[in-house]
Design goal:
The structure is a single chain. The chain is mainly alpha-helical. Helix content is 77%, strand content 0%. The protein has one domain: Helix Hairpins, CATH 1.10.287. The chain contains five helices and no strands.
Length: 115
Amino acid sequence: MITENEMYEIQRNLQKRISPEVNNAINSSEEKVKEDVSIMQAVYMSDECFEVLRELNFKPWRSIKDINREKLLEELVDVRKFLMNLELIWGFSIDDIHNKFLEKTQINIDRSNGK
């Protein structure tokens, strides 16, 4: 099993190979470069989210189909890869993400408890 850090390194290396735009944004110190590439990555990620929806029975007026778990997983991984690109572009570390995840989880718990 690979670690999260290894996943991010694999994604970074993939972007070096297939996406000069993302690779440039990862290595750029110019916020505008990062922002422009991030916008497109977010658009692509949104499209992948819609592909996730298409794998689920989200349209009540359509016939219910069996969920293809393998296809669903594939689409979820596509979403994650674009999310990872965004995190790489902005230089967020695994620790940054974990810490914010825990902080946001506590906020959600507090909200659910009426705080």
